Amino acid sequence: MTDAVNYKTIVEGSTTMYFPADQESTVFYNPVQVQNRDLSILMISLAAERRAVRQVVKAQRKAFRSEGVSNKELSTKMEEYEASLDSARVLSEQDPALGLTILDALAASGLRSIRYWKEIPGTKHVTINDLDAAAVERAWTNLKHNNVMDVVLEQNDTRDRGIH
């Protein structure tokens, strides 16, 4: 860290966060929310897998119909096809353009946003926002230290910094 403030380092999931060591900082770390963040990541990951499976199932159903498969056969073929799918593999092979877009509207330090980007497969884009300028600065610092600068950070006055 280049500024004179003393920082404490916190590791959560795949993310390392830097927070000012002083207790008066307006951007803080809330350890009570760890389980909530873990659960959010788990549930969004599951939703992403299910979404990817629905997309390939829909495409396969369309392919079977174009091949002239009867309605009677279609039901059986679709059941067999769906049973053969590995949802994690389907998601990993998904076109990146079809990935999730996530908004973290009140991101504070950016911890949840960075974890989303790093830990949820199939994420195309994460937008990080906060009304507090100190929170935006802390999120910006943590984005840099976690090598996730391709995550978008927005606040009204950030356009002057070239952040979109």
Description of the structure:
This protein has helices at 34-66, 71-84, 87-92, 111-119, 133-145, and strands at residues 7-12, 15-20, 100-104, 123-129, 152-154. The protein has one domain: Rossmann fold (3-Layer(aba) Sandwich). It is elongated and about 70 Å long. The two termini are 24 Å apart. The longest helix is centred in the first third of the chain and has 33 residues, at 34-66. Helix 5 (133-145) links the parallel strand 4 and strand 5 (152-154). The protein has 5 helices and 5 strands; from the N terminus they run E-E-H-H-H-E-H-E-H-E. The protein is an alpha/beta fold and 164 residues long. The strands form 2 sheets. A 3-stranded parallel β-sheet has the order 3-4-5, covered by helices on one side. The protein has a two-stranded antiparallel ribbon with strand order 1-2. Helix 1 packs antiparallel against helix 2. 46% of the residues lie in helices and 16% in strands.
Keywords:
164 residues; 3-stranded parallel beta sheet; alpha/beta; two-stranded antiparallel ribbon; tRNA-binding; Trm1; Rossmann fold; disordered C terminus; elongated; transferase; single chain
Summarize the structure.
By secondary structure, the protein is an alpha/beta fold. The protein has helices at residues 34-66, 71-84, 87-92, 111-119, 133-145; strands spanning 7-12, 15-20, 100-104, 123-129, 152-154.
How many strands, which pairing sense, and closed or not: the largest β-sheet? Answer: 3 strands, parallel
**How does the overall form come out from the CA principal axes?**
elongated
Rg of Cα set: 21 Å
Order of helices and strands, N to C?
Answer: EEHHHEHEHE
State the helical fraction: 40-55%
Q: Average pLDDT across residues?
A: 86
Cα distance, first to last residue? 24 Å
Please state the oligomeric state of the protein chains shown.
single chain
